[in-house]
């Protein structure tokens, strides 16, 4: 039994650390598997991505993680253990600074870009474009990032319908009228 335990195979191998047991390891039933271990960002790319996103608007760490997740179509979100030290590095370099907290988000530390950060974004525009292209390619949804106003409008429509429904639903005849409006819009778009 001692030999089995030493080999990570105690209790018939059910508690193996090498990928065969329930807690897996790379490629086992549990754990993350080999795919999640691949490196998404090259050297300095996470730093540039965070700087770019903060350049768009002041954000805190969680918002940055979610924004990268959105760019990749939910296929990748960096870990807090990678994001927060990188934010501290950017702050230490003077590329970002702490921003005034948003209303209701006083407990979260948001960052805004400095002039030095803006200058760096301008100098490294081609690199940033390549990073964004790589991340959007992960989503399989490059079109979404070529026409963001289209997807904003579609999201706006979905949001209005959801909010109207949650606020008390629809009155008699509303559903039919909404369906007619959407069908007419679809026909007009098809004719373009």
From TrEMBL:
Q: Where is this region: Disordered?
A: 17-38
Record-annotated Transcription regulator PadR N-terminal domain positions = 50-123
Q: Which Gene3D superfamilies match?
A: Winged helix-like DNA-binding domain superfamily/Winged helix DNA-binding domain
Spell out the Gly residues composition-biased ranges.
21-33
Q: This chain belongs to which protein, by name?
A: PadR family transcriptional regulator
